[in-house]
Design goal:
There is one protein chain. The protein has one helix at 7-10, and strands at residues 32-41, 47-56, 61-70, 75-85, 90-91, 105-109, 112-120, 124-135, 144-155, 178-192, 195-211, 217-224, 229-236, 243-249, 253-265, 274-282, 287-299, 313-322, 329-337. The chain has 341 residues and is mostly beta strands. The strands form two sheets. The protein has an eight-stranded antiparallel beta barrel. An eight-stranded antiparallel barrel has the order 12-13-14-15-16-17-18-19. The radius of gyration is 19 Å and the shape is globular.
Length: 341
């Protein structure tokens, strides 16, 4: 599933190996955020999951979520901990180790543990998580069950970035603010309740750092298959034209220059959370189109990020994307919307 990637290809979009690690932050920005994200799915979309870990250093809190999907049970298990004391998190120094025994970050208290351990920056690492989550769908809804992951993560393409952020609410003059996205292969072990399974699949990871203005809408789709990997996002900031970004990766990666999300949203039906057509254009002028349909979706709590706190429709859907040439691709669509009732 993995293939050799040269240093030149891996870093062609300006992401450096030191960007694997934590970054310096602006102590004057309350909503400075640094986060790491992984998602994964098997070949049939029967088992999948995603995890995000974020640091809000000027709020003295850390935030993690972990979601596990099991199609056989029709079951999502959710762990959401948005207010962990940041002092309980062991962290590497900016730009590299010291302080976390080689890990980028690690936490282990009160029945919850997680860590990201880069083996080779931007190329490979080990993601670990263990805790207890509430079942939110399926026959066991309401139960609290153990969940765990121990996964090796290998890069399948370049770390893609559009460079230093200059978007309103996401830019910093004094400190670097940026992000990268990267297609990955994932292999290891997953646990949910009393079930344990060897897992092999694909997914995406990202790492972002800088000011984070959360009061906006966005849509994000990532797809990952044998012959094609794709990530595309649209951010809708008030009083600013929509912002697009992303990549298409085959043997090499290139940026997306245009995107159209013709999606329909079912705010009252998680089973049909999002569907529609995605069209993208790449740097070489190639155009790709996909008909996206949901496999399953779950809603995530980000009420605490808004000023003032409020509910939005923030969901992640495991999706299948049909195309004219080639087998369907699996992936994820994430979106945040403010719905007026």
């Amino acid at each position: 599933m993995t293939h050799p990637i040269s240093d030149a290809e891996l870093t062609k979009f300006g992401v450096g190996f030191a960007d694997e690690w934590p970054h310096a932050f602006d102590p004057a920005v309350e909503w400075w955020n640094e986060s790491w994200f992984w998602d994964w799915f098997d070949a049939d979309g029967r088992v999948a999951g995603h995890c995000r870990f974020g640091l809000h250093p000027n709020q003295q809190r850390a935030w993690i979520w972990y979601f596990h999907w099991d199609a056989a049970r029709g079951e999502w298990i959710a762990v959401e901990e948005p207010r962990l004391p940041i002092g309980d998190v062991c962290r590497a120094a900016s730009g590299g180790p010291s302080g976390a025994n080689g890990a980028c970050f690690a936490y282990d208290r009160f029945g919850l543990s997680f860590a990201w351990e880069p083996a080779s920056p931007l190329r490979a690492g080990r993601f670990r998580f263990a805790g207890f989550g509430r079942v939110v769908t399926g026959p066991r809804a309401g139960m609290v069950l153990p969940v765990a992951a121990d996964l090796r993560v290998d890069a399948l393409g370049a770390a893609h970035s559009t460079g230093r952020s200059n978007a309103p609410g996401h830019a910093s003059q004094q400190y670097p603010a940026s992000r990268f996205e990267q297609p990955i292969a994932v292999a290891g072990r997953l646990c949910a309740g009393d079930a344990e399974l060897d897992f092999r699949g694909r997914g995406e990871r990202d790492h972002s750092w800088g000011p984070r203005h959360w009061n906006l809408e966005w849509t994000f789709t990532v797809l990952n298959g044998d012959d094609l990997r794709l990530q595309c996002a649209e951010a809708r900031i008030p009083n600013v034209p929509p912002i697009h970004g992303g990549y298409v990766a085959r043997a090499e990666s290139q940026s997306i220059t245009a995107a159209r999300f013709d999606y329909r949203y079912a705010d009252d039906d998680l089973a049909r959370a999002v569907e529609g057509r995605l069209e993208v254009t790449t740097e070489d002028g190639a155009r790709l189109a996909f008909d996206v349909e949901p496999i399953s979706a779950v809603e995530i709590d980000i009420t605490h990020t808004f000023v003032p706190p409020q509910r939005s429709v923030y969901r992640r859907a495991l999706v299948r994307a049909a195309r004219a040439n080639g087998p369907p691709l699996l992936g994820w669509t994430e979106f945040n919307r403010f719905v007026k009732r």
